[in-house]
Design goal:
single chain; about 350 residues; alpha+beta; Immunoglobulin-like; seven-stranded mixed β-sheet; five-stranded antiparallel β-sheet; 2 helices; 23 strands; about 40% strand
């Protein structure tokens, strides 16, 4: 029985298709599964689940938003979503809700592709009552530039505590003023470092406030500002609208202190390669006095000071001349009467 010879062309064709099929199989990118996300929405004031609430879910890759969807919570306060699988594995996810003109946010966490990503979103009832607001700490650091500009530069960190289960939105419902920010005299150019743009000056009281609602718990505000002084002495003092504790100011140790009544001197520390002395408020602010003396004056302040001194001397000279003139008139009048 004879052997059948294979066709070399067919063998080559079969081999080509085999390689092509293998290449196709190994080059196919596996389809990434969708990510499951569950958001639980609840009212922290009423301590109950929040049904029928529209929630916005956002996904970010670094600082760029890559996905956004709005969804409504069910009767149990839950929202279940399926996020498309094309989102990068290093993406972060956050949920937020706008409730009674205040926006609340969940924590920012990484989006998981292996298990359900869970987010908790709390919202609160608003209040205009400030009785639950206090200042648990305030630290101010005073700098002075190498150039003599008659300015003190200050960075101030204030930690407010809202002990209630409501969001404090300010005592005056007609303004956006929320938390009062205590400042020393002659403060200007105030900037909110922690939340840029969220400051408001009350037109009636001329006091400075933050505009961000104060959620239950701790709320930290970082501000920077400058203080102008026109003489060589500056009195560091403030007025507080809320109960307060742990009020500290750090001054360069090279500053000369004239009076520290109501303040306790604390150990020095190094800040930006300079020695600083900290002073803690120990008495009522209105009875305390922390005066910084012998401060350097700018040329403008010196000129103003000299001008005021000359004006004072001139004024007293004129008054003295007038007194002498009047006295002379009285004496002459008395002499003529005798004559």
């Amino acid at each position: 029985m004879g052997r059948t010879r294979s066709n070399p062309y067919i063998n080559w064709l079969l081999l080509f298709f085999a390689f092509a099929l293998a290449s196709l199989i190994f080059s196919i990118t596996p389809i990434k599964a969708d990510s499951a996300v569950q958001v639980y929405v609840y009212n922290g004031t009423l301590d109950e689940k929040a049904a029928g609430i529209t929630v916005t879910v956002q996904i970010f890759l670094e600082d760029n938003e890559t996905y956004r969807v709005d969804a409504v919570s069910d009767t149990d306060g839950n929202i279940t979503l399926s996020i498309p699988g094309d989102q990068a594995s290093e993406s972060t996810i956050i949920a937020s809700v706008l409730y009674k003109e205040v926006r609340y946010f969940s924590e920012v966490i990484f989006l998981s592709s292996d298990e359900t990503t869970g987010l908790k979103l709390a919202m609160y009832e608003p209040t205009n009552n400030s009785d639950s607001i206090s200042i648990s700490s305030e630290s101010a650091i005073v700098f002075q530039q190498p150039t003599i500009d008659s300015l003190l530069h200050v960075v101030q960190i204030i930690t407010y505590e809202n002990s209630s289960r409501e969001t404090f939105v300010g005592s005056n419902p007609d303004t956006k003023s929320v938390l009062h920010i205590p400042l020393p005299p002659m403060a200007f150019d105030v900037q909110n470092v922690s939340e840029p743009g969220s400051l408001q000056l009350d037109p009636v009281t001329n006091q400075l406030y933050s505009t961000a609602p104060a959620l239950p718990g701790k709320n930290e505000i970082v501000v920077s500002y400058k203080c102008l002084y026109t003489g060589d002495t500056f009195i560091w003092s403030k007025s507080f609208k809320y109960p307060h504790q742990n009020i500290v100011v750090a001054l360069p140790s090279r500053f000369e202190i004239g009076s520290n009544m109501g303040w306790i001197s604390m150990p020095t520390q190094e800040i930006n390669e300079e020695s600083y002395t900290r002073y803690a408020l120990s008495g009522p602010p209105e009875e305390s006095n922390l005066s910084i003396i012998d401060l350097p004056l700018s040329k403008g302040a010196k000129s103003k000071s000299l001008h005021e001194s000359i004006r004072t001397i001139t004024t007293w000279s004129i008054i003295s001349i007038l007194l002498v003139f009047l006295l002379q008139m009285l004496l002459n009048n008395k002499y003529w009467k005798k004559s």
